[in-house]
Design goal:
Layout: H1 2-9, H2 15-24, H3 28-77, H4 79-84, H5 87-98, E1 103-110, E2 118-121, E3 130-139, E4 142-152, H6 154-205, H7 220-276, E5 280-284, E6 290-293, H8 295-301, H9 305-308, H10 319-336, E7 338-348, E8 352-364, E9 370-379, H11 381-399, E10 403-407, E11 413-416, H12 418-424, H13 428-431, H14 446-459, E12 461-469, E13 475-486, E14 492-501, H15 503-517, H16 527-544, E15 548-555, H17 558-565, H18 567-584, E16 590-595, E17 598-603, H19 609-624, E18 627-629, E19 632-634, E20 638-645, H20 652-668, E21 674-676, H21 680-698, E22 704-713, E23 719-730, E24 734-736, H22 742-747, H23 751-772, E25 778-783, H24 785-788, H25 793-804, E26 811-816, H26 817-820, H27 824-836, E27 840-846, H28 853-858, E28 863-866, H29 868-871, H30 878-894, E29 897-901, H31 906-915, E30 919-921, E31 929-930, H32 931-940
This protein binds ligand LFPHGCPZ.
């Protein structure tokens, strides 16, 4: 290889060198082939050339002889024709000669001048070299002409070339055969064994150990092969030994390198440990002088290396601790080889004293002699602070008001504080070691606790309300703060639980929430909370496409009771009403108090509007029974308005507004009833609002006026009294009847002032009539419930009578039956007081209310007024006739007067007269009249049926 490289690098400067270079690259086989080829080819070529030359010479001689013969023949043959100058005789001879293809031309010249005698020329026969041969033609001794023949040697050349090719072919075949034979011999005898020898030699060179080769040949090659085989065996053995030694050596080297590396690594590690150790470490010699110090030690002392190394370590120990430290070094480290940790203070030149823990370890050399001391110092500042913190934490742990419990990862309680034992009732000994689940409230599903566990496990902390069970079994709600303590790997360690008993706060919160949501008096949902409930129910109904109903409930004349009997009674009544409303509802329905005497009912379970009317009827029925409050037996009727979802409104406000409008409608229709909302009610509600506003100004503007309807005695036809009936001279709407504004005035609390005006005006007018000299008559004034139950009613009337100068006996008060039964006891007292003043008292609309006969006896009234609804159909209607008859009889039996109102027909008159009714009032006699007209009627005298 090396040779090849060097050889190839030799520049081929000369052809010889190039050939040499080429030859060195030839294989042995190529060399053999080359030698054999050259060896065979050279004699072959020479032989061929010689043979060819000899042949050419032979053929040339033969060709010359033939030329001479032809020339001779022709010269002889033309002797006669030329002599005779007979072309005919000469021409055939020439033509015959021209048949020889080697003759290009024949020219026969005579001795005469001019044209040749015969000339035949075929130039196309010229292919090689031509020779011109001439011979004189003798006739006798005389030369008579000359024959010239031009010969072409092309044929001769062709024959020579063919001969050459034959020789070349022969030599070629000989060469190939010879080569093949030689190569065969070469291969079997030389090249193959040589190749084997070469492989053996290569194997030796490559230190390989091929299988042993057996040489049987007895020639030089066999000898060489055997020698090589021996050498191979020897080499193999030697290499084996060498390899073993090498391996052992390598192993040795590897081990040594490893040991050195381990040593270096260990040294580096310990050096690194020394350098990076957070503890201050220094080496001091046996005199106590610092030999080496790590960065932590320098940092601890706050000095550079130069200020420490070489100095006695004792200089850096606080003076108070120096002898103790010395003692530890001398008597512990030097004697025992080491000492346990002890505390001293270091003196730091620039930063004062530092508490440290100190340790010493004796250093020995290989012979065990002490050569120094390792001094290890650790800053105790943080540890001391931590200890203080721990101490503080322990104090906090024990003295905190919140119960603290620590739970180990296996869910067992590992420690609790004093507050824990106080709050949960367990002594620490009883609870530590127990599973935390003993504190669970058994009524709460385990799943809830598992969820809490999962929450703080995932988040690391959790806080919230958790129910806990005390040792006593009692359960309380606690605010628990759970914190997970994780180790540096993030694994959950202990769990710390802070438990604050919030049962009181919770109760207070619930109370507050309750107060915020529920009406304090009735404990019904208040306006705001009821709205929430209703809006929820509406949203739910919207989702499910179902119906809801809202019932607006307003108590009729509740204000009267409140004002007359006081707020305590009113409150009690409202509570009772609330309770009865609740009782009237089915589960799922709800009632709330909007304020005052206004309640609202939410019906969830509703199939149709009929259901709502059913509930409304039940409410009416439940409230119909008298309420007994503080010995007062009170009758309170409600008016209800019903609005349906979604027909009458799709939101709470609309539904309430429409139910309210419907409720007013119910009030307008006699109260104690219910009405479903209809679209026109809102218009009516607006109208009512407008009326209310105008009513407030009507008194100031003197827009009220009284009409008087005569009441005549049936026996004489004389007008014995009048009923004062209010009218409103509305600036735009003209004269308005009381039914259109009295209920509104009552509802809106305006009736007090209006009623007072009516009383005063009626008394004034009656007195005026008397002053005019008209026959004295009673004037009956209607009292609304609110007026009737006013505490100072008697006082007011006394004042008015006094003011107007009317004698009390000419004033009658009409109170409806439904009003007086609202509070029987109060009524009795009020009626007695009024009676004592000398007034007349009549029960209006008698028969329509719920008065009991026993009460009637106790009511000090003078007159019963049969309601127009009974009179209307007498005598035709048997029931009404019977009722009217019964009322007349009752009055007579009780010693009361009886008056029938709404008498319109003579038949009614006759029936009433026949039954013994005392007085009548009605259109038959006269409609209500202005004061002046009434005065005229009075002046006219008695009324008769005919007149
Ligand atoms: N608290 C007060 N209430 C009052 C006052 N003024 C009237 N009212 C009450 O208003 C109701 C309606 O009164 P009014 O429209 O005046 O009707 C009275 C008569 O006009 C009517 N009447 C009388 N006779 C007939 C008749 O033959 N047919 C018929 N259809 N109606 C008739 O009856 C009303 C009187 O009824 P009553 O009081 O029950 O006797 C009415 O309830 C009044 O009480 C007031 O100042 N304060």
């Amino acid at each position: 290889m090396d040779t090849a490289v060097s050889t190839s690098n030799v520049p081929a400067t000369s052809p010889w060198l190039r050939i040499k270079h080429w030859l060195t690259h030839l294989s042995l086989r190529q060399v053999f082939v080359l030698v054999v080829a050259v060896g065979l080819l050279a004699p072959g070529v020479i032989f061929t050339l010689l043979m060819l030359e000899w042949r050419r010479h032979e053929l040339t001689l033969q060709f010359r002889a033939e030329q001479e013969r032809v020339l001779e023949t022709l010269a002889l043959g033309l002797r006669q024709p030329l002599w005779d100058l007979s072309l005919n005789a000469g021409q055939p001879l020439v033509d015959t000669a021209m048949k020889d293809a080697r003759i290009v031309s024949v020219q026969v010249d005579g001795t005469f001048p001019g044209e040749p005698f015969i000339a035949v020329n075929l130039p196309e026969r010229r292919q090689g070299v031509v020779t011109h041969l001439s011979r004189p033609v003798h006739f006798g001794d005389q030369v008579i002409g000359k024959v010239t023949i031009t010969f072409d040697d092309g044929d001769l050349r062709r024959r020579l070339a063919a001969q050459g090719r034959e020789y070349v072919l022969l030599i070629g075949v000989m060469l190939v055969v010879s080569l093949l034979l030689i190569l065969l011999l070469l291969d079997s005898r030389f090249l193959v064994p040589l190749r084997r020898l070469s492989e053996q030699a290569r194997a030796l060179t490559n230190h390989e150990a091929p299988p042993g080769t057996v040489w049987t040949r007895e020639d030089e090659i066999g000898d060489l092969g055997r020698q090589l085989e021996w050498a191979r065996g020897e080499l193999h053995r030697l290499f084996g030994e060498l390899n073993d030694k090498n391996e052992a050596l390598e192993q040795d080297i590897v081990e040594r390198v490893q040991t050195e590396e381990a040593l270096r690594a260990s040294e580096a590690k310990y050096r690194e440990l020394f350098i990076s150790n957070l503890d201050g470490i220094c080496v001091v010699d046996m005199d106590g002088r610092v030999q080496d110090a790590n960065p932590a030690m320098l940092a601890l002392l706050g000095v550079p290396s130069a200020a420490l190394v070489g100095r006695p370590m004792g200089q850096f120990v606080a003076e108070d601790w120096r002898s103790y430290d010395d003692h530890m070094m001398q008597h512990r480290v030097l004697v025992d080889g080491h000492c346990n940790e002890y505390e001293i203070e270091l003196y730091r030149p620039s930063a004062g004293l530092l508490p440290v823990s100190a340790k010493g370890v004796l250093m020995r050399d290989v012979d065990g002699r002490a050569i120094g001391i390792w001094r290890i110092l650790r800053d105790l500042t943080e540890r001391k602070a931590a200890a203080q913190r721990m101490e503080l934490a322990a104090k906090v742990f024990d003295n905190t008001a919140e119960a603290i419990m620590v739970i180990a990862p296996d869910n067992r309680i590992t420690s609790v504080n004093r507050a824990f034992t106080d709050i949960l009732g367990y002594h620490a000994d009883e609870i530590v070691g127990q599973p935390s689940s003993v504190l669970r409230d058994p009524s709460v599903e385990t799943r809830v606790y598992e969820e809490i566990n999962a929450n703080y496990t995932n988040g690391g902390a959790w806080q919230g309300e958790v129910p806990f069970r005390r040792k006593s079994g009692g359960v309380f709600t606690a605010w628990a703060q759970i914190n997970v303590v994780r180790d540096v790997t993030g694994r959950i360690g202990d769990v710390v639980l802070l438990i604050r008993d919030i049962s009181d706060a919770k109760a207070a919160q619930e109370r507050i929430l309750h107060l915020a949501r529920f009406d304090a008096l009735t404990v019904l949902p208040n306006r705001a909370y009821f709205r929430e409930l209703a809006e929820e129910a509406i949203a739910e109904a919207h989702r499910h496409g179902v119906h809801r109903a809202l019932l607006f409930v307003d108590l009729d004349h509740f204000k009267t009771i409140n004002d007359s009997l006081g707020h305590d009674v009113g409150d009690q009544l409202l509570k009772e009403v609330a309770s009865r409303l609740n009782d009237a509802l089915r589960a799922g329905d709800a009632v709330g108090r909007l304020g005052g005497d206004e309640f609202v009912i939410l019906l969830r379970n509703l199939d149709s509007g009929e259901d709502a009317s059913y509930v409304a009827s039940r409410v009416l029925e439940r409230l119909a029974r008298p309420f007994v409050v503080d010995e007062h037996e009170l009758v309170v009727t409600p008016s209800l308005g019903i609005a349906l979802y979604p027909e009458d409104g799709e939101d709470y406000d609309t539904l309430v507004r429409n139910a309210d409008a419907a409720m007013y409608h119910a009030k307008e229709h006699g109260r104690n009833t219910f009405r479903f909302y209809t679209a026109d009610m809102n218009a009516r509600a607006r109208e009512i609002l407008a009326v209310e506003n105008q009513l407030r100004r009507a008194l100031e503007r003197d827009e009220f006026v009284l009409h008087y309807q005569p009441q005549v005695a049936m026996s004489s036809g004389a007008i014995v009294g009048v009923e004062a009936l209010i009218r409103w001279r509305h600036p735009e709407r003209g004269l308005i009847g009381p039914m259109q504004f009295i209920p509104i005035a009552e509802e809106r609390g305006l009736i007090g002032d209006i009623g007072e005006w009516v009383l005063r005006e009626a008394c004034r007018q009656n007195r005026a009539w008397q002053d005019e000299g008209l026959p004295p008559i009673e004037v009956a004034v209607n009292l609304s419930a609110m007026q009737f139950y006013r505490r100072d009613l008697a006082e007011d009337i006394t004042g008015i009578l006094k003011e107007t100068g009317l004698d009390a006996r000419w004033l009658a008060l009409e109170v409806t039956e439904s009003v007086i039964v609202q509070d029987v006891e109060s009524t009795i007292a009020t009626l007695a007081a009024l009676k004592a003043m000398g007034l007349k008292l009549a029960i209006d609309d008698f028969g329509t209310g719920y008065s009991s006969l026993s009460y009637l006896k106790r009511f000090k009234v003078d007159k019963l007024k049969v309601d127009r609804s009974f009179v209307m159909d007498i005598p035709g209607d048997a029931d009404d006739s019977a009722i009217t008859r019964a009322v007349v009889n009752l009055a007579r039996n009780l010693g009361l007067q009886v008056i029938a109102e709404g008498v319109e027909t003579p038949e009614q008159w006759s029936f009433l007269k026949q039954e013994g009714c005392d007085e009548v009032q009605g259109y038959l006699v006269s409609p209500p009249l202005p004061a002046i007209d009434l005065a005229n009627r009075l002046a006219r005298g008695a009324w008769t049926l005919q007149g």
